[in-house]
Amino acid sequence: MAEGYTSSEGGSASRRALDESGKLYTQMKSHIATSGQLDRHGFPRPGGAANRAHFLESEWLNITKVSPCKSNEFNNSTHKKCRRCKKDFTIETPDRVTGGQCTYHHGRCWNNIWKCCGKQEGSRGCTTAGTHVHDDNMRDPSGYVTTVIKPTPENGNPGMYAIDCEMSYTINGLELTSVCIVDHNLKTVYHSYVKPDSRMLDYNTIHSGVTERDLQGVSTTLKDVQNFMLETFSKDTILIGHSLESDFVALKLIHETVVDTSLMYPHPRGLPFKSALRTLAEKHLRLYIQRGTHDSKEDAVACMKLAIAKVRRQSFSSGRGSSARGGRNRGLENFLLDFF
């Protein structure tokens, strides 16, 4: 494994690490999402014009509710419908939002029961916020950047990175407020809070983990994050994550070489259901995440581990992994636990 070697072990160890990296990239390629999957799951797609994205116009997205936004239309008006409680409200000025307080359920509704409070579907919300919020900007096609073709490295690995983003509600909608990127060695290559472009309405802390204190003094902007991605990624870099369409919309990134753990590990009941990342991590890695304050690095690492575990399991099952760890004959689960 690449993370098993250090510079002190000499050039041959470095070359072996590079070879392993290229091999892992080749194995991971079989799980890259197809163009059809990117379309159906609401990924931003090349729009035919500079800095603009295109979203599939299909009732399929609304019926299955797998896209990051419940509408294919970009609502740029001041009249909004609250993302949480569904009440109408108006943004009169950047400093004034009508409609009063928002009472809503912050958890998921499963089998007609809200997980946040155990109440029946249709019951009054269990959480109260000071204002209504919207996510209409998630269908804004402007401001996107696109990864480009770059020369392929000697080891054949243009890079594999896992991404997790957090968003908070502003006057403009849902905006990026935190991003973490880790490489295939689980090393953090980028981790930053991000200053939104407009006034904050709700930090969305219960889901994002981002607080007012976290953003104090932060100067990093979305443009700074985009510049880092364009410098680091190429068109062939494999980006890994869970329901990455939402992350790409938050990053305003168009990229087509994607491995999505929600597709690698489909829900037993099929679409529109998707297994939660914490469920997959616990089931396939014996890894328990999201048990306290939300951590974007924890989620990014979990996604990378899930993706690597998938290809390692395939390699192990086909017999290529039987000689791993000095040829000792051991169970697959122990092999994976040792790997991580």
Key descriptive features of the protein:
17 strands; 2 domains; six-stranded mixed β-sheet; 11 helices; alpha+beta; disordered N terminus; 29% helix; 340 residues
Write the layout of secondary structure elements.
Layout: H1 11-28, H2 35-40, E1 45-46, E2 53-54, H3 59-64, E3 79-81, E4 88-93, E5 96-97, E6 102-104, E7 109-110, E8 113-114, E9 127-129, E10 145-146, E11 160-170, E12 173-183, E13 188-193, E14 200-202, H4 205-208, H5 212-215, H6 222-232, E15 238-241, H7 244-251, E16 253-254, E17 258-260, H8 261-264, H9 277-285, H10 296-317, H11 332-339
Please explain how this structure is put together:
The longest helix is centred in the last third of the chain and has 22 residues. Strands 11, 12, 13, 14, 15 and 17 form a six-stranded mixed sheet that branches. A three-stranded antiparallel sheet has the order 3-4-5, with no helix packed on it. It has a two-stranded antiparallel sheet with strand order 1-2. It has two domains: 225 residues, 2-Layer Sandwich (Nucleotidyltransferase, domain 5); 49 residues, no CATH class. With 340 residues, it is an alpha+beta fold. The protein contains eleven helices and 17 strands.
Summarize the structure.
This protein is of the alpha+beta class.
